[in-house]
Amino acid sequence: MTASLILFYVYAAVAVIGAIGMVSSPKLVHAVMWLFATLFAIAALYLSLGSEFLAAMQLFVYGGAVTVLVLFVLMLARPTETATSKPRATRTIAAAVLCAAFFAALAATLGGASFSHDVAGAHDTAQLAQILFSRYALPFELAGLALTIALIGAIVLAREEDAE
Amino acid sequence: MITLNHYLVVAALLFCIGLFGVLTSKSALRVVISVELILNAVNVNLAAFATYVAPKEAVGTSFVIFLMVVAAAEIGLALALILTLNKSSDIAAIDSISQLKG
Fold it and tell me: What is the pTM of this model?
């Protein structure tokens, strides 16, 4: 068992524990904090894959922006989760059984599958920039456009009452 | 030695936990953050495949970037919707939001 494998298990454990904490914590703020732990661990997983750019983006976009955005909405909207908003026990059990069965099927398939992989090697950020700005230049621009439209839509939605 | 299958199983586990969150939560904000978890699991899959199966070209890595953009757009719109719904009614229960107009 090499050191990298041990580190991988640590990252994976943090990610999974954070995810379980997210779905099981009764308070929404705590759920967001658990989600942050999971996102942080996923950034570490990207680092273990050798994609340092993805790890940085994961921390900026998810760890920074998304978490803070959700916390801001939580602060502004103050959604009250009362006891009646708790899901029924039968529904929770049914969902748990369904998800466990789905995971069992996935793990049985993926765990034993063998892929024809080349020698594992990470590509550096220069290669990513090369392909992003040459072959995928048009999708890249469209992604920027989609993001702009979504943000304008978000502003329009959130300011709806002022227009009336 | 970490293999591709390690990453795939971890991503599948994260995906299933996110799915469980979407299925069981009654608050709209919980559904949104569970969907974020699902998208992150997919991102881990893409990055792992990019490193192990196609190390010569950074195709999978660029897909992760695009998926992050789409996820950011999605969460921006979703949070705006939640704020708007919160003005008119209590968003605590998504089951109570049964009509789009009115």
Answer: 0.88
